[in-house]
Amino acid sequence: MPPKFTHKGRALDRDTVSKQALELMDAIEHAERHIRQLESEWAIADTARLAYHAVLRREIRAQEECRDHG
Q1: Three-state DSSP state, 16
Q2: In terms of C-beta density within 10 A (0-12 exposed, 13-18 middle, 19 or more buried), how is residue 23 classed?
Q3: Model pLDDT, residue 48
Q4: Could you write out the DSSP letters of every residue in 31-46?
Q5: What domain of life does the native source organism fall in (predicted)?
Q6: What's the pTM?
Q7: SS3 assignment, position 13
Q8: In 3-state terms, what secondary structure has residue 7?
Q9: Confidence (pLDDT) at 69
Q10: Could you give the CA distance from residue 38 to residue 35 in angstroms, rounded to a whole number?
Q11: For FRET with 16, which of 36, 48, 61, 64 sits at 20 to 30 Å CA-CA?
C-alpha cells in the first residue's frame, strides 16, 4: 500500500490516521479495484456484443442475398 491516500484532493499519511480511517481507506481501495475489474469485464462483454451484432448483420445480409438470387 502506498504511504499516502488521497481523499477529495487531500493527501493523507497512513502513519498519522486512526485505525478506523486506515480500515476505511482499505475498503475504498478494495471497492475501487473491484470497480476497475468490473469495468474491464464490461468492456470485454461489450466488445463481444458488438462483434456478435456485426456477424449477425452479415449473416442476415447473406441470407437475404441467397433468397434474392435463389
Answers
A1: helix
A2: exposed
A3: 99
A4: HHHHHHHHHHHHHHHH
A5: Bacteria
A6: 0.72
A7: strand
A8: strand
A9: 87
A10: 5
A11: 36
